[in-house]
Amino acid sequence: MTQTQILNIAKEAIGTAIIVGGPILLISLLVGLIVSIFQAMTQIQEQTLSFIPKLLCIAIILLLLGPWMLNVMTAYTSNLFTQLVNFARY
Q1: Inter-residue contact 16 to 76 (CB < 8 Å)
Q2: What is the largest CA-CA distance in the chain?
Q3: Which residues contact 31 (CB under 8 A, 6 or more apart)?
Q4: Cα(15)–Cα(9) distance, rounded to whole angstroms?
Q5: Following DSSP, what letter does each residue of 51-70 receive, concatenated?
Q6: What share of the chain is helix, strand, coil (3-state, %, to 5)?
Q7: Closest Cα to residue 80, out of 33, 3, 11?
Q8: What is the residue extent of each domain of the chain?
Q9: Among 5, 29, 21, 3, which residue's Cα sits nearest to residue 68?
Q10: Cα-flanking dihedrals φ and ψ of residue 33, to 5°?
């Protein structure tokens, strides 16, 4: 197994993680920002107020994008297992 192959596997893993985790992180960030602005305007300083909207939005995103995320992860895993046969020869 060469350094190029290892770097390629690492690059694919990081790219897949960003693609799969990106929508959840972006929605969570956006909802947190909106709730923070709302708290600043109304001067409600309740710490737990931001968690409920974030949890609801993340659950909705997982319901909507869950099958797509599973397909991306399955494709990456099957590709990795396919390449593993080639790496085992070295």
Answers
A1: yes
A2: 64
A3: 50, 53, 54, 57
A4: 10
A5: HHHHHHHHHHHHHHHHHHHH
A6: 90, 0, 10
A7: 11
A8: 3-85
A9: 21
A10: -65, -45
Residue 90 has pLDDT above 80, yes or no: no
In the prediction, which pLDDT does 85 show?
Answer: 81
- Confidence (pLDDT) at 4: 86
Q: Is residue 14 over pLDDT 70? A: yes
Query: Per-residue confidence at 21, pLDDT binned at 50, 70, 90?
Result: very high
CA 65/CA 86 separation, integer angstroms: 32
pTM over 0.90: no
In three-state secondary structure terms, 78 is helix
56 pLDDT band (50/70/90 cuts)?
very high
What is the rounded (10 degree) CA torsion for 77, 78, 79, 80? 50
